[in-house]
Design goal:
This protein is mainly alpha-helical. The chain has five helices and no strands. It is 78% helix and 0% strand.
Length: 131
């Protein structure tokens, strides 16, 4: 049986995970739109894993939308959203390796954020279903 402190810590970590999923989703959507529009934000001579900048932009945009959907589900306390959030954060973490050549520090920051979200959902995600 979980104590009150464990329950509050679990709810705090789920709130953290949902908030970070939302922030990462918004940032990914902005990055995706900028890449699709061939914005001057991106480095000119960067080689991408998939095709070109526009293709990478669509991939990032789709991952961003998945992150936003996962954030909304985790905020609602859905058990399925916990696993979907882990899946979406894993896609985001893997996707950051594709942008590593263009923006290494930003990619490492977003990768570590995804890992923290995965940890929060995996360890504390089951507590919300028990309440």
């Amino acid at each position: 049986m979980a104590t009150r402190d464990d329950t509050e810590k679990g709810l705090g970590m789920l709130l953290f995970a949902a908030t970070m999923l939302g922030i990462a989703g918004i940032m990914a959507v902005i990055q995706g739109i900028a890449a699709i529009a061939n914005s001057k934000v991106y480095v000119a001579d960067t080689h991408f894993v998939f095709s070109n900048l526009r293709t990478w932009g669509w991939i990032v945009l789709i991952v961003g939308v998945l992150l936003l959907i996962a954030a909304a589900g985790v905020m609602n306390g859905s058990g399925f959203a916990r696993w979907f959030g882990i899946f979406a954060a894993s896609l985001s973490a893997l996707g950051q390796f594709g942008a590593m050549q263009a923006y290494p520090f930003w990619s490492l920051l977003m990768f570590s954020l995804a890992i923290m979200v995965i940890y929060s959902l995996a360890v504390y995600g089951g507590d919300a279903a028990d309440m």
